[in-house]
């Protein structure tokens, strides 16, 4: 009776041990050619962009543009009330004409020795003052005629005829969309991924992830003190008409391939703010903290915590705990997707 009971207990223990095993797929930590890859966020910018505003305060006499219109450099956009300035310009021109005539008469008289040099000097001074007054009157009139500073597309109109506008108040915006710029920040530890003459791929999420090649043109020289990053601008010379300034851009940075100890990214398990993996040893797993480095598609460099040849769990780790028993379903090498390995193993069983 006692022997039978002991046998039953032993059998139940062995059965429980088998049932307790978790089926996993593992991968070998080994040297692979891996290149660094980083994604940084950026923004699309117009080639040129400006908020159109007045330099003086006055009432709007005429709005000369339509929202969304294409304009040329110098096109009139807004006219402020300018009757007094126009009259002042006419008066200044008349005064200048009179001063010029007086100067010419005195020059003729001086050639005949019928006028003193002092009188001629005074006439020249009066003419120069009159000429300067014309320039000033023209500038004051020009301040009330607001023109497009460069060709581009106008934004929304923020004012109406008859409204009083203050100096510096935005009237509309103007954007040169002949080309677009992309501005992004490159972290200090990724500066090595920027190389002269290297084209970068940019992904635009708003266009369904469409990719464009851009060439960095200029950077800020100095890193930003807050984030220790470098501001970089690249140009998209033939932008898609659907692209708009302000849209989010994802810039892909790549480093040259080199041999490095690596494992599949799926093996990494966050644990208490650290990166860990489950290492399989003699049918059991042990949690191991690791330090990761460069990343490529589906793979990650391991800088510390693993040795070449050690096996890590890449599927089934969410069901594990340290020292759990496991059954290896297969070894992932990147050639066969994990889903196919699971399906084939299920069909075989």
TrEMBL record:
GO terms for cellular component: efflux pump complex. The keyword Coiled coil applies. Transmembrane segments: none annotated. PANTHER family: HAE1 FAMILY EFFLUX PUMP MFP COMPONENT, MULTIDRUG RESISTANCE PROTEIN MDTA. Residues 89-140 form a coiled coil. Residues 183-255 form the CusB-like beta-barrel domain. One of its GO terms (molecular function) is efflux transmembrane transporter activity. Residues 260-326 form the YknX-like C-terminal permuted SH3-like domain. This is Secretion protein HlyD. Belongs to the membrane fusion protein (MFP) (TC 8.A.1) family. Residues 50-176 form the CzcB-like barrel-sandwich hybrid domain. Keywords: Coiled coil, Signal, Transport. Residues 1-20 form the signal peptide. It comes from Oceanococcus atlanticus.
């Amino acid at each position: 009776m006692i022997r039978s009971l002991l046998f039953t207990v032993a059998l139940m223990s062995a059965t429980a041990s088998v049932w307790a095993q978790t089926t996993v797929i593992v991968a070998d930590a080994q040297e692979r050619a891996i290149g660094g890859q980083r994604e940084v966020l950026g923004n699309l910018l117009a080639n040129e962009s400006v908020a159109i505003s007045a330099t003086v305060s006055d009432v709007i006499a005429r709005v000369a543009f339509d929202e969304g219109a294409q304009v040329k450099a110098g096109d009139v956009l807004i006219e402020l009330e300018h009757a007094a300035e126009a009259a002042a310009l006419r008066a200044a021109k008349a005064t200048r004409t009179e001063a010029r005539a007086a100067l010419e008469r005195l020059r003729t008289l001086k050639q005949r020795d019928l006028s003193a040099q002092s009188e001629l000097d005074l006439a020249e001074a009066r003419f120069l003052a009159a000429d300067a007054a014309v320039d000033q009157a023209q500038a004051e009139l020009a301040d009330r005629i607001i023109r497009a500073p460069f060709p581009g597309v106008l934004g929304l109109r923020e004012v109406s005829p008859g409204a009083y506008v203050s100096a510096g108040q935005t009237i509309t915006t103007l954007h040169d969309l002949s080309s677009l710029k992309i501005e992004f920040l490159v972290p200090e530890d990724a500066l090595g991924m920027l190389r002269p003459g290297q084209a970068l791929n940019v992904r635009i999420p708003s266009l369904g992830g469409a990719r464009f090649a851009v060439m960095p043109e200029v950077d800020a020289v100095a890193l930003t003190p807050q984030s220790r990053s470098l501001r970089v601008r690249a140009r998209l010379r033939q932008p898609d008409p659907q692209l708009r300034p302000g849209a989010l851009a994802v810039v892909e940075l790549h480093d040259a391939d080199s041999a490095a100890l690596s494992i599949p990214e799926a093996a990494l398990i966050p644990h208490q703010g650290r990166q860990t993996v489950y290492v399989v040893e003699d049918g059991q797993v042990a949690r191991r903290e690791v330090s990761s480095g460069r990343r490529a598609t589906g793979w990650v460099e391991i800088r510390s915590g693993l040795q070449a040849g050690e096996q890590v769990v890449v599927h089934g780790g969410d069901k594990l705990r340290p020292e759990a028993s496991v059954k290896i379903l297969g070894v992932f090498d990147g050639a066969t997707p994990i889903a196919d390995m699971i399906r084939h193993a299920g069909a075989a069983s």
